[in-house]
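Example: Nudix hydrolase domain-containing protein.
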Amino acid sequence: MSKPHLEPSEWYASVPTVYTSACMLLTDEHDRVLLVKPNYRPYWAIPGGVVEADEAPHECVAREITEELGLTVPVGELLVVDWAPPFEQRPRTMVNFLFDGGTLTNPNRIRLQVEELDAAEFFTWEDAAARMPANTATRIPAARRARKNARTVYLPADSAV
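Written out as structure tokens, the predicted fold is:
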């Protein structure tokens, strides 16, 4: 005998949920990566943030870049999709979308959102990865590979780039 089907509202309430974030890879004319230093974390990060309710990842990253850096940057190709299991105080899985923002030819246009950020600086690809926590640092070489190969990279939590 088969199980009775749940009503859609009951079924959706039983499905696991994830957090979603989006960030943007911006480089300068010397092929260095832009990172930001949030004032609420001890490490550097790729600019971006958490996707709000009913917001698409590409819309989120455009909003976050405007809010955090005062820039209006066209959202380019999807470079990396990163799946990360629960970590430290985050109780759910995080799925991150990393979009290409291209080359920022005039870094003087950056207007830092001081309520959330202490700094924004360009680093070599290697130094950028070294300044990030291990659970997100793999996004940097993956994004570089994605740009080079014009192909999105998927990063499951146990992947090595």
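The longest strand covers residues 94-103.
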